[in-house]
């Protein structure tokens, strides 16, 4: 999955997962729960909708608060994570609802906010 870093990654919310199957994405959400295996966790987006995230290896740290995940959307509609970043809320205040509104604008006006770079010959 090294190609995930080499291509544009649209920022999405849980409602958009089915539109991006097999494609790299960036997802930001609030941690809701971590499976006992440590290899799966659930994030909720700015609308409170859940998204499941799968890891190749179990977590080696405690997660909480806001988490950004970069990965591929699987056929099951889960995000297979390549990397994740935890935003500690004591260091910054992150308004997930406002972020979600920004995502809607990005996706409603793709002519102004293109996700893919077009090569001009």
From TrEMBL:
Major site of localization recorded for this protein: nucleus
* One of the record's GO molecular function terms: single-stranded DNA binding
Name the GO terms of the biological process aspect: base-excision repair; DNA replication; double-strand break repair via homologous recombination; mismatch repair; nucleotide-excision repair
Q: What InterPro entries is this protein classified in?
A: NA-bd_OB-fold (IPR012340), Rfa2 (IPR013970)
- Give the UniProt entry's GO cellular component terms: DNA replication factor A complex; site of double-strand break
Q: Does the keyword Nucleus apply?
A: yes
User: What's in the keyword line of the UniProt record?
Assistant: Nucleus
Matching entries from CDD domains are given as:
RPA3 (cd04479)
Its subcellular locations are: Nucleus
Q: Which family does it belong to?
A: Belongs to the replication factor A protein 3 family.
UniProt name for this protein: Replication protein A 14 kDa subunit
